[in-house]
Amino acid sequence: MEYRTISAGTITAAVKRLFLDCNYYIGGDILAALKNAREQEASPVGRSVLGQILENDAIAAEEQIPLCQDTGMAVLFVEYGDKVCVDGDFEEAVTEGVRQAYRDGYLRKSVVSDPVFDRVNTKDNTPAIIHTKIVSGSTIKITAGGKGFGSENMSAIKMLTPSYGAEGVKQFILDTVFAAGPNPCPPIVVGVGIGGTFERAAQLAKKATFRPVDSENPDPRYAEMERELLTQINMMGFGPAGLGGSTTALGVNIETAPTHIAGMPVAVNICCHAARHASTEI
Amino acid sequence: MTKKITLPITDEAIQDLKAGDSVLLTGTILTGRDAAHKRLYELLEQGKELPVDLKGELIYYVGPAPAKPGYAVGPAGPTSSYRMDKYAPALMDLGLKGMIGKGARSQAVIDAIVRNHGVYFAAIGGAAALIAKSIKKEELLCYEDLGTEAVRRYTVEDFPCIVAVDAQGNNVYETEPLKYRKKGLI
Fold first, then answer.
1. Which residues of A touch B182 (CB under 8 A)?
2. Which of A73, A141, A205, B168 could be joined to A267 by an S-S link, Cβ 3.0–4.6 Å?
3. Any idea of the CA torsion for A165, A167, A168, A173, to the nearest 10 degrees?
4. In this predicted complex, what is the ipTM?
């Protein structure tokens, strides 16, 4: 079998570029959704807030500065081709890319070493959260994002059981978004993971926030659920910045996985309007 | 209409502010967030003097990104205020006049705002690059070891925000979403 060798330095450079790009340049899908929301928004304050967010995102891109001061915790989804051989430590190569981006790119270092007792800043925004999946092929595909915690803190997971059905799933998602209210920097992107185990549901929810906001689940039943939830969320009235209005969310993305006969886990990962992610294939 | 306020904010200016007003602040403000608040609060609990005088001040809940060369400050948008709810009433009772942040506050904080004739301003979360344009200078005051969470003094010109809770306790996060909430919500 032929193996393709990729240098650790190539991985590091690619990861660095992804984190600079996603923190300076908002994605085209979000930009289009924000512009559309400004056209549709019922509240004058809401329209003004959306205008300021668009102005902010333009300044960040123009000046190559972070669009939000919370440049997040670094999260990466890696699809690692089984015909690839990295000449070095893959995880260290990724970590070095994160370190260089946050150090050289004037991104905020927001990670503390110990969650409860020490809470001392690691000063380089590492470690990153790296989800690696081995796939067939000879490339490495990386999707990366800086996840801010204003919205992360508003996320929730619940181990629903089968009798809850679709209505129970929707209710939990809506309850979570309603409880978040004005706090997660609306308009938000709602990532939902349904199925799997406790941790798989949470991972799927994060992955769902990285999916373009104008995409839909390939299963028409879940696509319908996404549309219905978006409508319901935008009836809540929180609006841009939570100051009232008809745009509380830009999109709802649902990802699913097979699960146990006894279970129906649902995880809701909320992302702010600065829904930052970028992808590359090496 | 946008109201221009020169800092330090006066009782008369606060009296004139109504929840929902757009405001531009000019003068100096303090910065501080989770870790700094925890330290200040612990000093208060021990009956010790604080390293910074809060009397008559506004505190901005912010942890800025580093400044690029040539910039006075890095991007500096508000962080979620509710995390400071535990500490805010005690600081207001010491003379802090107001806070700038984002998102809802607890009833205890709203009570402290009314009791102390204070104000809570909301800045737009995620508008960090835009907001930083109104911050002209920064000076480190204490807790340098906290990095982005250190307490600083910002000199601001026409810093944009909205009155979220006024001195009468009116709260935009309560009143405004209700105007746009629709029936049929499951």
1. 235, 237
2. A205
3. 130
4. 0.93
